[in-house]
Specification:
The complex is a heterodimer of chains A (1079) and B (487). Chain A is built from eleven helices and 59 strands. In chain A, the strands form 13 sheets. Chain A has a 22-stranded antiparallel beta barrel. A five-stranded mixed β-sheet of chain A has the order 10-15-16-13-14. Chain A has 1079 residues and is mainly beta. In chain B, α3 runs parallel beside α5 and α7 packs antiparallel against α8. Chain B contains 18 helices and six strands. The longest helix of chain B is centred in the first third of the chain and has 27 residues. The chains are: A mainly beta (1079), B mainly alpha (487).
Chain lengths: 1079, 487
Amino acid sequence: MLTTGQKRNKFMKFTPKLLWAVLAVTCCTGLEAYATSNVSYTNSAVQQKIRIQGRVLDESTGLPLEGVSIRIGSVAITQTSSNGSFDFETEAGSMVNFVLIGYSPYPRTFSTSADNIIITLESESQGIEEVVVTALGIERNKKSLGYAATELKGEQLTEALANNWSEALSGKVAGVNLVRSGGGPAGSNKIILRGENNLTGDNQALIVVDGVVINNSSGNQVGTGHGAYLGGDSPSDFGTGINDINPEDIETVTVLKGANATALYGQRGANGAIVITTKSGRSRKGIGLTISSNATIESISRWPDYQFEYGQGTEGVRYYSFLAAQGLASTRSTSSAWGPKFNGQYFYQYDPITQTRATEPSLWQPYPDARKEFFDTGATFTNSISLDGGNDKTQVRFSFTDLRNNWIIPNTGYARNNVSLTASHDVTDKLKIRTRLNYRQNRSDNLPSTGYNNQSIMYWNIFWMPNAPLSWLENYWINGQENIAQSYPFSSYPDNPYLIAYEMLNKNKRHGLTGNIEASYKFSDEWDVLARTTLDVNMERRSQQRPWDTEKFSRGMYRTQQLNNSETTSEVMVNYKKDINEDIKIRVTGGGSTLRNEASQERNLADSLAYPGIYNLGNAAGIIVTIPNRSELVLNSLYTMGGISYKDYLFADYSYRIDWNSALASPISKGKPFSYSSLNLSFVLSDAVTLPSYLSYAKLRSSLAGVGSGGMRPYLTAYNYNIEPTFSGGRANPTLVPNLMLEPLNTTSFEIGTDLAFFRNRWSLNATYYHANTTNQHLQAVVDRSSGANQVLVNAGNIQNSGFELESRIAPIRKSDGGFQWNINATFSTNKNKVVELTDEMPEMTLQNGPGSRGSIIAKTGGRMDALYGRGYLRAPDGQIVYNAGIPVLTDTMMYIGQTNPKWRAGINNEFRYKQFRIGFLFDAQFGAVGYSLTAANLASQGKTKNTLPGRYNGIIGNGVIDNGDGTYRKNDVIATNVWDYYTAHFGNDNVEGTSYSTDFLKLREVRLDYNLSPSLLSQIGLQRATIGVFGRDLFIWSSWPAFDPEFGTLGNGDITRGFELGQFPATRTFGFNLVVGL
Amino acid sequence: MKKKLIYSTILILGLTSSALNTSCNKDFDVINTNPNTSPKVRPENLLAPAITKVVGYNMNRSQRITNELMQVTVNMGDGEGRIFRYEIRNSEADYLWNNWYIQLRNFRDIYDFADELNNDGYKAVALICESWIFSLLTDTYGDIPYTEALQGRDQNNFTPIFDKQQDIYLSLFEKLEEANSLLAALPPTTTILDWSDPVFNGNLQKWRKFSNSLYLRLALRVAHKVELNSSDIITKIIDLEPSNYPIMESNDDSAILRWTGSSPYVSPFATWRPGDWNSPAMAEFFVERLQERGDPRIQKWATEVAGNYGGVPSGYPVGQPPIVQSRPHPSLMTQPLLGNIMNYAELQFILAEAAVKGWVFAQPAEVYYERGISAAITLWEYTVPSFYMGTVFTKWNDAETEFEKMEKIHIQKYYSLYFTDLQSWFEYRRTGHPVLPVRSGHLNGGKMPTRLIYPVYISSTNRENYQKAVQEQGPDNINTLVWWQRP
């Protein structure tokens, strides 16, 4: 039987006996001192006694707050009860302060007696007095931190729920760069903080769940290993363990942006960290039950500007004939729409019944909706239930979540279940044991293939004709040849999209378990020890199947992959803290850990099938190729950290860590240890001196750190022959010469910042400047192949990132008593990336090649890591485009086109509250980057977009000049009648300048409307809380991007890369409804 | 009490750190030993993948470069980089250079490991393959890294010097001499492991015949250069010491990696999309010469359009695309014979030319010529039509000029070299045969390119040696003559 139980308190219980809270106690002391110091005293003349009654509620949830300390001056006169109510007497005109840890103190002056007063307290999300979770899960008082850290509450992730929780970071945290695979419903995101620093490896932030780093185990598999551009097979995004984290279970997400904050992660701390803490149980009466239900629908929001004036046909052909007839050659197989204008004429066209040319001519007409009709409305249903409860000694929380998704491509989607359990128990006053376990299961019967290739829907979408209805494709087999021969009326390049959706399936099933068990023992107030073991296990089965007669696999295909990863860490940490005197306090932690990562992957390939339509390895027509791969890595570490504080306003912290990494051992060395250290300073000016009254808080912080990365890939230090899996006993020389003395990358980072609050915290501002250099890059230096190798692995190079981050919170209107409130949260960040140095011999390094090597991302010394190069317009000295025979001329060499990461990003979130209502909307913008759009290039060179309409029948004169050959130029006056060549030269593949577009955008990222049922209504119906909300995500995009979404990444070869858009999926907008009920 | 606590803490700390300290890099060398691969291999592990890949690369460029330059096909269009118009983009340079050298590393290992194991069979095979591939490299690019090549792994030499083509040819002759003597010293029944050898299934006698036939190919290629006097090699092999230098005796001895269709021996074209295979049209020159001779092979090589075969004139004027007729036959995508390395017919045409030039007397040129024709046609599983040798196009006539004889031999050789790496282009550059029509749409001044440029990246990764090579050989462009092409 569930009881209505106690009202829940949002703040953390500080039981001094609990070791867990030891550090927090220090903070708590600081907090209360701060709160007290801000109370202003009123006239002390003897006044009349008045009586005040009322309740204290959480401003955001409307829930009653228990244990709110009600103070006059520094004296606490009473506390609120479990239903948040209070009742006290005081002198008229005295200033009463309502104080609760985790909330902004609320001072109010009462002059007369009053009852039914409602006081709302606002949670301290601007983070001045907050306790935040830092590296290695250590909780710290935010004011002591010498570096920037931003914390988001779990609600901020779930109130406008996206399929991938990390979407919610966008626009809310300065300095976060999400590189999206856009690869379908399970779309993976790469989270990059403060710019990319590693030329050839992983730049992704560490993702830490309850102290477990999941990057190198459950988080390390993205997609299958194929290229996105006409590769052997198309990559599919199966998601990773990072996607599978259940946002409903997240209590807080702390974004530790720079190396300074994450130096304690040693060899893998250079890219910053996203530290996730999951919810835990609380001591309470009875059981707390929360049910949340979320339903979203997703539909396409933006399309390329297709033309529907001219139909299928090769260059200059003004008739149409499906197959040759009446003396006219067939125009069936072209992919271009340079054909006849839709003028009401009749042509011989395709007949889907007979699957060949119709016997009668039919009307030549456009079908503007055919491309759109193929897509469905996506829908996602997420239902969660959580139970929590406990007493002084034991607290438990359990939750279960079920997610079901159907995506916008027919027959695609996935399902996910999460089960989590958190338990903590005080065995004695000194010994505490605690565990958190998250199990997740993700499964799909079909996830879409991505990229520009056969088997991808968007490849078909580009190739589809303006003059053809979708119904021609619905029967995707040749009549009488089901499973043997596909039916597609036009060019043989694309496959029938229904065949793709219903027969070319990519399946997966993934189990993941992430958890930790820890015990802490408190010897005394000064000494305690903590031992922790963490575990991250991931098991996944994937398969791909292709029927006979697909373009890439004429006899079908079936492949499987079995992936197993695990990472375990055991850690012991000893803490000592002591107050030397009133003013000086020290704390020191020493610890050590050992980490073991084991991975295995087995791939089986049957690239032709004996019998059509049967998909298993037993149906292989030839030999089943098996490719096993195992790896193991051990990382041992010792570390210490500590700090000293003076009068709770001056803090100095250090950290030092030494790592031994097996991946750096080689046949000639066991691998030398590497050490990393950091020094942080924080000075709370407002506590040290008296500042003008409008400045309520002022802190200066600064930090210097050295930290590593890139040493987590084993086996780069020895020469081993590759297996040639299709050959019996086949081996081949590797093409990369290893480095026997490999060292990890080293990042040296400096940051300085300030946290300010004005007008009683009505306006707060956090500003940070950072500057980091990453040296010892693992460069695979290209060598002359005549040396017998492609590349040699060297430690060299230096990449510099610097930038500003601003986060600000403004409360222009803040009426108390549940009245109108307006809050603004704004973020702004810049990043400047510079290639300071490569190797001595290499002035530049190609990091990534675009489709068909038409453009490249090239790091040149002095340039940027994300610089897009390619051929562009040949221009006269005055900048005009040079034309020859009416067609623009392109440069012979690769020229700089632009940077592919934005110059700046900004987000602004507005929130309005009135009584039980809350409305919020978040805008998100980026500026100053370009991207290459293969979608736009191919649509234009096939004559399918409106930008190719002018001059179709009569020719066009391009705006530019003609080279007179003697250094002078005259205005171009040549009519290009071959408009297809004209437009292909302007917008087609080869003109990287012409087909690269600005990726600047402004997005209406989130819109929310929530209604909290009032406490009185809730108590009548026996609920503790109930919230109903409607929301939208990505509702509008303002951008000149010609394809779908200016925010894109491309999935390929197991990575997500930026710069080149290769057949992206449509951008979608999401509408959702959610309901949270607490019993 | 307090003391006790502190002591126990120190004890725990001490234990922890000492435990970590002693084991902080224990067994790391073992843990970081790759469990998936091996640092040691034997020759038989390397041979099949390496040779299969090289044949695959050769077929790929034969389709892309040789067929376009030699008017077998026309990949129509007026845009840039149309190879049939003699416009070769700089980026075309990388593919063969990179892939050939990377595979040479494997052949060099086969030699070294076979040397350690005293296995002269694999040693000889490695020498033959090295000679074959290095000859392709130097014929394609001219002067190339040779003596210092392949030393990156073992000697950290990533900037090898370039050797002169003349010296390379001399060294290749030595390699082939060594291969022949190694194989001659083995009992005739000696084999290498059949599964490691997709060309001859381990038959070392056939390798020896291939070796000496290849020797003839290379000797003929530079026979006109007085510096090496390589015509003497031809005379030695054929007339003076034939028993010491066995050569191919029938189609059976041809060095062909026959694609069986089952993995790994699947033709690299088998996985191409039909649309990609069909993008070039057949060229008029190739199709018409076959037709006027009544050559049956056209049925396997080109598609029929309305009961007829027709080709597009290569080098047609820009902006005036002719109507496409025949395309390359789709059955070629799985055709086993496209894996040709060197066949018996080519050898006969080599000998026919040598006979015409007076370097070989064992048989008259006519015999070699007619043997070559019938071997070439029967290889494609056709019988030689009874009229074939007697037509005005084919009939041998000793009274003809050397030029006319060369044209007759080389048009036939051209067909026998169908899809054989870049050989017909090399032969055209050496002899000017078969005479190809040049039209207004041919760029580069209507001049057949004489080499591929060095990969662009080499000018930075191996700068000094690259610059020396350019000084020595001439500007790095497609018209600079390689040594054997120089007058």
